[in-house]
């Protein structure tokens, strides 16, 4: 359940950052909060099984808003 809270917090934090990026009164702060930095990037791997072709890749590129969402999700999980 905690992992679900963390994932949803990261997604909602990232979405909130993208929404607030266009607010004129926050124009000075938001570029720092929504700039993503790659932490983990695994190149896509393709597996051809002749019936199904499967391509899998994974990238973790958080921004500060998604990290704030993760922290808020952990705080809410502890209260739950």
Explain briefly what this protein structure is.
Helices cover 50% and strands 21% of the residues. The chain has three helices and two strands.
Shape annotation: flat
Q: How many separate structural domains?
A: 1
Q: Biggest sheet: strands, sense, closure? A: 2 strands, antiparallel
**Residue share in helices?**
40-55%
* Structure summary, number of beta strands: 2
The residue-averaged pLDDT reads 91
Q: Supply the helix-strand structural class.
A: alpha+beta
What is the alpha-carbon Rg in Å? Answer: 17 Å
Distance between the termini: 10 Å
What does this structure look like?
- This is DUF4321 domain-containing protein.
- InterPro entries: DUF4321.
- Keywords: Membrane, Transmembrane, Transmembrane helix.
- The chain crosses the membrane at residues 50-77.
- Pfam families: DUF4321.
- By secondary structure, this protein is an alpha+beta fold.
- The chain has one domain (2-79).
- The protein has helices at residues 2-20, 30-34, 64-79; strands at 40-48, 53-60.
- A two-stranded antiparallel sheet has the order 1-2.
- Strand 1 and strand 2 form a beta hairpin.
- The N and C termini lie close together (10 Å).
- The mean pLDDT is 91.
């Amino acid at each position: 359940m905690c992992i679900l809270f963390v994932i949803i917090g990261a997604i909602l934090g990232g979405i909130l950052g993208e929404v607030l990026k266009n607010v004129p009164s926050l124009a000075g702060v938001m570029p720092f909060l929504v700039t993503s930095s790659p932490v983990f990037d695994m190149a896509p791997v393709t597996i051809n099984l002749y019936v199904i072709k499967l391509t899998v890749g994974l990238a973790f590129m958080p921004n500060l808003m998604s990290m704030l969402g993760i922290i808020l999700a952990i705080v809410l999980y502890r209260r739950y």
